[in-house]
């Protein structure tokens, strides 16, 4: 994602929210501490390799529904017939606060130029019906062909013939388990390890109660929706150290050099909104620090939990999110 011309994009390593999946699925009781639930049935069949060629994030309500899954309710992780995807609300606010941003374009560009390489391994006896199937995602490296011949000529590794290696930084292999019925794979709930990239800095989060729905499955590609929840404070704590230097140029351009009065400090938009939400220190000043981000009451409200991680909860404990990915055929080690 881009925030006023600075990269703030999601990368992934699981069926990825821009995504890294390194958890497993099968139990209805994914733990908030990130431990791996018990797998009910080991996947059976051949390995089919893919590279993700598009990640779509929800920027409006229609996309939130299309890119989300039913993760449960506020007091139970049992499906309740409602799609859960609070990520859309946050992304929409970013677009409103900084209308020059292009969140989707940045993610798409990062995939096309090879900044993000996500490899998927589907294990199944057939693409139409398979009682015990599995899907794992890995971070990829060393693409052949190279992604770009020129700055405006990229995406060659996504032509369906690409070969890759698995990056040294890829999480240990893990598989989201489920079944394929009438051409649709449903896996989860389980835990996935989610990697985000903000600017040039990766952060890791636990995606809990994760579910995956894959369609249009064939030897040449697939489409999938990935949904799950993160502990709100864990998300805030992960991004807090990274945001201040990324926000500094925005604030410098839009705020007076001195003499501003909190909370907005005389800044023009979108800096005024950013300052009002994150400038929470005492005594009040016109600087944003990692500690202020961690303690921001407004940010806690924005990222408040809306779904439950357990069979029963007294109150919701996870912030829901969902994305859509497509993938094309690829080759990499471990598919035999």
Strand content: 25-35%
Q: End-to-end distance, in Å? A: 36 Å
Number of E strands = 14
**How many discrete structural domains?**
2
Overall spatial form: globular
Mean pLDDT: 82
Q: Helix count?
A: 8
Which regions contain 5 or more consecutive residues with pLDDT less than 50?
1-39
Element string (H = helix, E = strand): EEEEHHHEEEEEEEEEHHHHHE
- Please describe the biggest sheet, giving its number of strands, its sense, and whether it closes into a barrel: 8 strands, antiparallel, barrel
- What class do helices, strands and sheet pairing give? alpha+beta
Task: Walk me through what this model shows.
The protein is α+β, with helices and mostly antiparallel strands and 336 residues long. It folds into 2 domains: 2-70 and 84-230 and 322-329, no CATH class; 243-297, no CATH class. It is built from 8 helices and 14 strands. The protein has helices at 61-66, 87-97, 103-112, 232-239, 243-254, 271-278, 290-295, 297-302; strands at 2-3, 6-9, 12-16, 46-56, 118-124, 130-144, 148-150, 153-154, 163-166, 176-181, 184-198, 201-218, 221-230, 319-329. The strands form 2 sheets. It has an 8-stranded antiparallel beta barrel with strand order 4-5-6-10-11-12-13-14. Strands 7-8 form a two-stranded antiparallel ribbon. β10 and β11 form a beta hairpin. The longest helix is centred in the C-terminal third of the chain and has 12 residues, at 243-254. The chain is globular and about 65 Å long. Mean pLDDT is 82; it is low at 1-39.
């Amino acid at each position: 994602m881009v925030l006023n011309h600075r990269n703030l994009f999601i990368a992934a390593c699981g069926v990825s929210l821009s995504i890294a999946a390194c958890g497993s699925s099968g139990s209805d009781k994914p733990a908030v501490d990130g431990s791996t639930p018990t797998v009910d049935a080991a996947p059976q069949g051949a390995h089919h390799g893919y590279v993700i060629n598009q990640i779509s994030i929800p920027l409006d309500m229609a996309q939130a529904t299309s890119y989300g899954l039913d993760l449960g309710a506020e007091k139970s992780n049992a499906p309740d017939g409602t799609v859960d995807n609070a990520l859309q609300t946050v992304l929409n606010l970013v677009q409103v606060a900084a209308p020059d941003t292009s969140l989707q374009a940045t993610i798409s560009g990062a995939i096309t130029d090879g900044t993000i390489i996500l490899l998927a391994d589907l294990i199944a006896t057939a693409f139409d019906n398979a009682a015990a199937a599995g899907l794992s995602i890995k971070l990829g490296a060393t693409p052949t062909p190279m992604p770009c011949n020129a700055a405006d000529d990229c995406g060659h590794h996504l032509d369906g013939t690409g070969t890759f290696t698995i990056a040294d930084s890829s999480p240990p292999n893990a598989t989201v388990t489920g079944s394929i019925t009438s051409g649709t794979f449903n896996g989860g709930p389980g835990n996935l390890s989610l990697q985000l990239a903000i600017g040039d800095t990766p952060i890791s989060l636990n995606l809990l109660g994760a579910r995956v729905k894959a369609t249009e499955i064939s030897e040449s590609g697939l489409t999938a929706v990935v949904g799950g929840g993160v502990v709100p404070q864990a998300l805030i704590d992960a991004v807090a150290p990274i945001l201040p230097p990324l926000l500094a140029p925005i604030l410098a351009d839009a705020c007076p050099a001195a003499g501003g009065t909190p909370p907005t400090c005389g800044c023009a938009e979108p800096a005024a909104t950013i300052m009002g939400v994150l400038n929470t220190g005492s005594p009040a000043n016109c600087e944003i620090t990692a500690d202020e981000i961690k303690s921001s009451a407004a940010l806690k409200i924005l990222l408040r939990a809306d779904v439950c991680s357990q069979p029963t909860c007294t109150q919701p404990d996870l912030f829901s999110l969902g994305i859509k990915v497509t993938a094309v055929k690829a080759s990499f080690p471990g598919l035999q």
